[in-house]
């Protein structure tokens, strides 16, 4: 019984870390681009993930995550840096203007057309597949190693359900965040995870592993603050003293 609880708790905590990253991406994309396409993308990701798990089973523990991290990290970085740049420009120009205000700098990403927003779908799909695959690998590895696959599955699935439920409960609060600021936050998050995963895919060993993510987050946030200050000074016609 002790072994079962050890596996259950370990897989729950380890899976929760990946689930938090998954929910962060999905909620951020949904609040910024709209929920319909985001939810469909996330559901599609879970569907693909379920098929992968069923087909591969225990062999999932030897799936080369490195190349997958490189590709998906690079794609997240491309999207993230675009939102990062737009967020900086809009916060610099509008400050913390609310979601309902007009946006003088662009077309606005919130999708209102009846067709699919494939950008939102793709971002949600990638986030779910990558993080879900890592949860599956965690579950299979811990479960097979301790001969407690059932407990590991309960821990992994429980982490996704609990973290996902918290994300759904908080999504209305996320929507109240000023949109220009929200876009910048999501850009920082996507750029952070994209950088981390892409470099890991290239074989870079991050100091402290996942503990390096907050450092990257601070770096991108500080960079955003620096460029917001520069842009506001430019817009206001201010120049640094000679």
Give a verbal description of the structure.
This protein is mainly alpha-helical and 242 residues long. It has one domain (2-236). The chain contains seven helices and no strands. It has helices at residues 2-33, 35-56, 65-94, 118-146, 149-175, 179-201, 212-236. Helix 6 (179-201) packs across helix 7 (212-236). The radius of gyration is 20 Å and the shape is globular.
Structural class: mainly alpha
Fraction of helical residues: over 70%
The radius of gyration computed from the alpha-carbon positions, rounded to a whole number of angstroms, is 20 Å
- H/I helix tally: 7
Number of separate domains: 1
Strand content: under 5%
Helix and strand topology:
Blueprint: H1 2-33, H2 35-56, H3 65-94, H4 118-146, H5 149-175, H6 179-201, H7 212-236
Helix pairs in contact: 1-2, 1-4, 1-5, 1-6, 2-4, 3-4, 3-6, 3-7, 4-5, 6-7
Question: What descriptive keywords fit this protein?
Answer:
242 residues; globular; single chain; mainly alpha; 7 helices
Q: Quick gist of this model?
A:
The radius of gyration is 20 Å and the shape is globular. By secondary structure, the protein is mostly helical. It has one domain.
């Amino acid at each position: 019984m002790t072994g079962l609880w050890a596996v259950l708790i370990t897989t729950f905590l380890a899976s929760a870390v990946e689930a938090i990253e998954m929910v962060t991406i999905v909620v951020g994309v949904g609040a910024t681009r709209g929920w319909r396409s985001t939810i469909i993308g996330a559901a599609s990701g879970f569907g693909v993930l379920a098929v992968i798990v069923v087909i591969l089973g225990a062999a999932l523990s030897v799936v080369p995550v490195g190349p997958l991290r490189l590709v998906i990290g690079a794609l997240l970085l491309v999207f993230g840096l675009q939102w990062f740049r737009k967020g900086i420009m809009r916060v610099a120009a509008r400050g913390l203007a609310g979601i309902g205000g007009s946006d003088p700098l662009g077309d606005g990403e919130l999708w209102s057309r009846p067709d699919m927003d494939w950008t939102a779908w793709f971002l949600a799909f990638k986030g779910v597949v990558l993080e879900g695959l890592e949860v599956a690998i965690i579950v299979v590895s811990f479960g097979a190693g301790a001969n407690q696959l059932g407990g590991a599955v309960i821990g992994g699935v429980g982490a996704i359900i609990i973290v996902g439920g918290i994300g759904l409960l908080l999504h209305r609060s996320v929507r109240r965040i000023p949109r220009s600021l929200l876009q910048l936050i999501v850009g920082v998050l996507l750029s952070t995870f994209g950088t981390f995963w892409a470099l890991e895919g290239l074989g870079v060993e991050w100091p402290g592993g996942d503990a390096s993510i907050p450092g990257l987050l601070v770096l991108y946030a500080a960079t955003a603050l620096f460029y917001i200050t520069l842009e506001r000074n430019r817009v206001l016609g201010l120049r640094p003293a000679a």
